[in-house]
Amino acid sequence: MEIREEEREGVKIIGLRGRLDAVTSPAVEQRLLALVAQGEVRVAFDLSGLSYISSLGLRVLMVVAKQVQTGGGKLALATLTDSVREIFNLAGFTQLFTVCQTVDEAVAYCAGR
Amino acid sequence: MREDEVNSGQSILTLDSDIAELRRLGEFIDGFCDLEGVPREICYQLKVALEELVINAIMYGGCDPGPGAIQLSIRKEGDEVSVVLSDSGVDFNPLDVPSPDLAKGLLDRPVGGLGIHLVRQLIPSIRYERRGGRNYLYLTKPVKPDLGPE
Question: What is the pTM of this model?
Fold first, then answer.
């Protein structure tokens, strides 16, 4: 699991590449919560490289989203693959999260455009 | 590490009660689905559901961290994949965990229960049994037949 970070318009863009499962989730959660604690409350995720997400991965996203929301920030997910999107639908996540087709849309949402 | 066996149409995997074993679980399911021509989407969903159930057994089941704590057998019959998952943990039926209230917003929804909810969504038929000091879960998932090239 690789985490790529970049910034655009004051929004932190997080690219997750690889698997977000029981093995990789703890380290990813740690990194993401640290970012939020540092004040990054506009967070857009590029999930085009996410090959697999299990319930533990979903849990990480949920925990981070809660922290962002508590901090009065915005979080959006972009470019989900079909398999991951299906898991999101079944978990009821598409109602909870802002899901965008492109990273640009996610950045626009988080930047408040 | 135990070798995987293929026995009268069944594939059997034995796992130690250890999170590191999850990669073997994924590889095992991939191998089975490849062999039996199970579509990629179904394979993916099987892996997600089984990962959740195995994690529960490892983390909450109180299995002795020894070899062979968890056993999984899988076979394809007609348009269905059947899995039997057993573990040596405490008497625990994951289906007893209540489903999350999906109407609740993000901040109000507890994080727990999410995994089992997902399992129920992915696996239409699940049955639990306690027998001989082990938990048994019987799972059945339909496999949409591959339509093949036109």
Answer: 0.85
